[in-house]
Design goal:
elongated; mainly alpha
Length: 111
Protein backbone atom coordinates (compact mmCIF):
# COMPACT_ATOMS: atom_id res chain seq x y z
CA UNK A 1 0.00 0.00 0.00
CA UNK A 2 2.79 2.46 0.84
CA UNK A 3 4.56 1.62 -2.40
CA UNK A 4 1.42 2.43 -4.36
CA UNK A 5 1.06 5.77 -2.56
CA UNK A 6 4.73 6.58 -3.12
CA UNK A 7 4.48 5.68 -6.80
CA UNK A 8 1.30 7.73 -7.18
CA UNK A 9 2.97 10.71 -5.47
CA UNK A 10 6.02 10.42 -7.73
CA UNK A 11 3.92 10.18 -10.90
CA UNK A 12 1.73 13.12 -9.88
CA UNK A 13 4.80 15.20 -9.05
CA UNK A 14 6.07 14.59 -12.60
CA UNK A 15 2.66 15.51 -14.01
CA UNK A 16 2.66 18.77 -12.04
CA UNK A 17 6.21 19.60 -13.15
CA UNK A 18 5.32 18.99 -16.81
CA UNK A 19 2.18 21.11 -16.49
CA UNK A 20 4.17 23.96 -14.91
CA UNK A 21 6.89 23.68 -17.57
CA UNK A 22 4.38 23.80 -20.42
CA UNK A 23 2.68 26.79 -18.84
CA UNK A 24 5.99 28.66 -18.52
CA UNK A 25 7.12 27.58 -21.99
CA UNK A 26 4.07 29.09 -23.70
CA UNK A 27 4.91 32.14 -25.86
CA UNK A 28 3.35 34.81 -23.63
CA UNK A 29 5.09 33.77 -20.37
CA UNK A 30 8.38 33.36 -22.27
CA UNK A 31 8.09 36.91 -23.59
CA UNK A 32 7.12 38.19 -20.14
CA UNK A 33 10.16 36.50 -18.58
CA UNK A 34 12.45 37.99 -21.24
CA UNK A 35 10.99 41.50 -20.89
CA UNK A 36 11.17 41.35 -17.09
CA UNK A 37 14.81 40.29 -17.20
CA UNK A 38 15.63 43.02 -19.73
CA UNK A 39 13.96 45.73 -17.64
CA UNK A 40 15.74 44.52 -14.52
CA UNK A 41 19.07 44.56 -16.37
CA UNK A 42 18.42 48.04 -17.73
CA UNK A 43 17.52 49.20 -14.23
CA UNK A 44 20.85 48.03 -12.86
CA UNK A 45 22.98 49.75 -15.54
CA UNK A 46 23.50 53.52 -15.69
CA UNK A 47 23.13 54.14 -19.41
CA UNK A 48 23.84 57.87 -19.06
CA UNK A 49 27.28 57.08 -17.65
CA UNK A 50 27.91 54.36 -20.24
CA UNK A 51 27.01 56.66 -23.15
CA UNK A 52 29.08 59.54 -21.77
CA UNK A 53 32.08 57.20 -21.38
CA UNK A 54 31.62 55.73 -24.88
CA UNK A 55 31.66 59.23 -26.37
CA UNK A 56 35.20 59.76 -25.06
CA UNK A 57 36.51 56.77 -27.05
CA UNK A 58 37.82 57.67 -30.50
CA UNK A 59 39.12 54.44 -32.05
CA UNK A 60 37.70 50.99 -32.64
CA UNK A 61 40.47 49.47 -30.55
CA UNK A 62 39.60 51.84 -27.72
CA UNK A 63 35.92 50.91 -28.04
CA UNK A 64 36.75 47.20 -27.80
CA UNK A 65 38.96 47.83 -24.76
CA UNK A 66 36.19 49.94 -23.19
CA UNK A 67 33.61 47.20 -23.75
CA UNK A 68 35.89 44.55 -22.31
CA UNK A 69 36.84 46.57 -19.22
CA UNK A 70 33.23 47.68 -18.65
CA UNK A 71 32.05 44.09 -18.69
CA UNK A 72 35.01 42.80 -16.67
CA UNK A 73 34.57 45.40 -13.92
CA UNK A 74 30.82 45.17 -13.43
CA UNK A 75 28.88 43.72 -10.51
CA UNK A 76 27.78 40.12 -10.12
CA UNK A 77 24.10 41.02 -10.53
CA UNK A 78 24.83 42.42 -14.00
CA UNK A 79 26.70 39.22 -14.92
CA UNK A 80 23.80 37.11 -13.67
CA UNK A 81 21.16 39.22 -15.38
CA UNK A 82 23.18 39.35 -18.60
CA UNK A 83 23.48 35.57 -18.72
CA UNK A 84 19.79 35.20 -17.83
CA UNK A 85 18.76 37.64 -20.59
CA UNK A 86 21.01 35.91 -23.10
CA UNK A 87 19.67 32.48 -22.14
CA UNK A 88 16.07 33.65 -22.16
CA UNK A 89 16.54 35.34 -25.52
CA UNK A 90 18.13 32.25 -27.04
CA UNK A 91 15.35 30.10 -25.61
CA UNK A 92 12.71 32.43 -27.07
CA UNK A 93 14.38 32.50 -30.51
CA UNK A 94 14.89 28.73 -30.60
CA UNK A 95 11.26 28.06 -29.68
CA UNK A 96 10.00 30.54 -32.26
CA UNK A 97 12.23 28.94 -34.90
CA UNK A 98 11.00 25.49 -33.95
CA UNK A 99 7.36 26.61 -34.13
CA UNK A 100 7.94 28.28 -37.51
CA UNK A 101 9.51 25.09 -38.86
CA UNK A 102 6.60 23.01 -37.60
CA UNK A 103 4.10 25.40 -39.25
CA UNK A 104 6.08 25.24 -42.49
CA UNK A 105 6.13 21.43 -42.45
CA UNK A 106 2.43 21.23 -41.66
CA UNK A 107 1.66 23.54 -44.59
CA UNK A 108 3.68 21.35 -46.95
CA UNK A 109 2.05 18.09 -45.82
CA UNK A 110 -0.41 16.66 -48.32
CA UNK A 111 -4.01 16.49 -47.22
Amino acid sequence: MTTEKAMRARVMRRVYVMYAWRTVAAPAPRAAIFITLMLTLFGSISFVDVISNVMTVSTLDGLLNFGYSAFANTSNIVYTLGIAVLGSGLWFVSEQTKEARLREVSLEAPI
